Amino acid sequence: MNHEDFYIRWGVSQILGEFGESSALQVLSEGLTHENHRVRTISARLLGNLASEGVVPLLLRAINDSTYSVRRNAAISLAAFLREEAIPELFKALRNYYPENSEISDLEVVFYPVENYPVVIKGFDERHC
Q1: H helices then E strands: how many in the chain?
Q2: The pTM is what?
Q3: What pLDDT, in 10s, does the model give residues 82-129?
Q4: Element of type H or E holding 22
Q5: 24 CB contacts (<8 Å, ≥6 apart)?
Q6: Per CATH, is 6-128 categorized as 3.40.50.720?
Q7: 14-23, long-range: CB < 8 A, 24+ apart
């Protein structure tokens, strides 16, 4: 993980990230700012596998990336953390899927913080962000 070549560190981090190994966090976080959108996309996906609180702020930034695939993977990964501060960003991300519908008050997101007990959040008002 300390190799000077980013792509070697990246390869090791991909493997560790697939298994949820938190030691991959540093390189995967670097990957979110890489010039290559594929590296950013994979980083956003793999960060969702890590059980680290440090991941949430990284994904909250990545959800605003200029590349659709990065935003999509960041949103999917972020949803897995079931964190309240992610809810406004996830509703904003819905606009990427429904851009023709500027009114998203009728949309809903279902979370399962406890198995078999869904929490449904309906609508979204940006004034409350």
Answers
A1: 6, 2
A2: 0.67
A3: 777 777 777 777 666 655 555 555 656 666 656 676 766 665 544 444
A4: none
A5: 1, 12, 13, 14, 16, 17, 46, 50
A6: no
A7: 14/42, 14/46, 17/46, 17/47, 17/49, 17/50, 18/46, 18/49, 19/49, 20/49, 20/50, 20/51, 21/50, 22/50, 22/51, 22/52
